[in-house]
Amino acid sequence: MSTESPRILVIDDDVDIAKAARLLLERQGMTVSTAADPPAAWVRLAEAPVDVILLDLNFARGRTNGAEGFALLDRLIAADRHAVVIVVTGHSGIAVAVQAMRSGATDFVIKPWNNERLLATVERGVALRRAKLDAATAPPVVDGALLGESAKITRLRDLIARVAPTEAPVLVAGPTGTGKTLVAQLIHQSSARADSPLVTLDAQVADSAMIATQVAASMGGSLVIDQVDRLPRALHGELARRIDGPRVIATTRLDRAGMRAAVGEDLLYRLNTIEIDLPPLAERDGDALLLARHFLAVFAHRHGRPARPIAQDAEQAIARIGWPDNVRGLRLAMERAVLLGNGATYELDDIALRPATDPGHLAPPELSLARNEKTMIDAALKRHAFNVSRAALELGLTRAALYRRMARYGL
What we know:
By secondary structure, the protein is α/β, with parallel strands linked by helices. It has four domains: 7-135, Response regulator (Rossmann fold, 3-Layer(aba) Sandwich); 151-279, 3-Layer(aba) Sandwich (Rossmann fold), CATH 3.40.50.300; 282-367, Helicase, Ruva Protein, domain 3, CATH 1.10.8.60; 370-409. The protein is 47% helix and 12% strand. The chain is built from 17 helices and ten strands. It has a five-stranded parallel beta sheet with strand order 2-1-3-4-5, with helices on both faces. A five-stranded parallel beta sheet has the order 7-8-9-6-10, sandwiched between helices. Helix 12 (287-302) packs across helix 13 and helix 15 (369-383) crosses helix 16. It is globular and about 65 Å long. The chain starts with 6 loop residues before the first strand and ends with a helix.
């Protein structure tokens, strides 16, 4: 079991309640962070996994039905199946707290609480969390939430929730940077195989020996076949014959017609019982600005920079441009803005957005994705003392994908 200081997140819009919990738990040697609402909570969770989450169920003034808290509870458990969530409620909310436990919460605490009882409940939660992680093979996914409120991303989360607990093979398709690796990880960690290995086979560089090794390593767990359409034709039959043991999750950048042309019928039949299509960011109405605010807050906290709002014209630009590199490109642009911006607000120039010749359109960010990607990868590797697994988790990449980029950029 880990001997590190327990990390606790308190999600409560009542500043006094959050402060009281923080002071009590810090006196016991715990590391405590606070968030006043769900968006702030996702920022804190993007930094590192926590052991226990203390969750208030109501955030908007006058709300008492717990709808906001229940929605967040569902998302927290979907993002980390080992999450330990303790609901904090008033005396009148005991029935709601019991309902929350039926929805996945571990325990509940009644306000105003008894300090000894709260401390004992949190300590039990820490022990439970660490026991879960000790039994698990795969580490929790840092920043593992599929954020967004658009209709398409809401339907996507619902589809993942329905498909993940099954044994069905899944084909995850979408353009570069839309989150295929994250979706594969979420499917695995929400399945009955979550405590078994999650192994990635890089189809582009695969050979017979690699297929045999990776399939054997994934037995009982899940096998992610990354960029399956790039598997050499000569290996299609061999892969199709071998993938009976693990749960198979394949990814591709191609559409259905492209997949039918690139992958043999026998292999495709074994891969696409369920197809999940990830929308480009341009089709996720409103999500670009939501994600931009999230990433700006994450990187400001990570790099020790002050939190700053986005200027109105920059907000409009973020919402309107196409983002050809999707969420990955947006994330890179926001980290660049945090590192280089120095005004009271984030401006168009900070985010490298400038009006195009046609005033009705806006140009995409004027930055070299390759140059910025190299910078971000180098920074992540240094932050984690060149631990490739941890750097890959932070960057939202598989180890194989990160190794490919390290080789490409000479890192």
